[in-house]
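User: I'm designing a mutation panel for Glycoside hydrolase family 104 protein and want to avoid disrupting the core. Could you give me a predicted structure to guide residue selection? Please restate the sequence first so the numbering is unambiguous.

Assistant: Good idea. Sequence first, for numbering, then the predicted structure tokens:
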Amino acid sequence: MADQNTAAFLLMIRTAEGTAGPNGYRTLFGGQLFSGWADHPRIAKQFRDGAGRTLWTTAAGAYQAMAISPIPGGFTSSNTWDRIAARLGLPDFTPASQDAFAVELIREAGALADVRAGRFDAAVSKVRRIWASMPGAGYAQPEKNLESLRLAYLNAGGSLA
């Protein structure tokens, strides 16, 4: 990782998403594990969100990346993994590729300079719509509070501006 604040921010995201443990890079939405690093596992899971809607997700890995996968009635609506993997030329779904994917999403959100400079609150605000666990994400899924995320970031070695 290029700098300590970026590494700490990535660990904070994994903490928020519930994937900070030893199997985080192999975790499917809901907690099951997948095997193999050749590609995103593309396993569609049905779930009910906090608003009572029945939805599908292909979220997988440390950053719960979504990819195209056939599901009953259509395809997943979010395809962040395939879009970013093609842009960056990511060859697989290894931890290194997953980290590069997450850094690119942070950059796309205009938050990478904030992360590197330690402007934690500003960075979280800019990425909140990317990860459902972020405060203010608005996806009718459990959200972490900013204070607990800041503590995770600081405990991971991040510094504040």
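For picking mutation sites, this is relevant: Helices lie at 4-17, 80-88, 95-108, 112-117, 120-127, 146-155. Residues 4-17 form the longest helix (14 residues).
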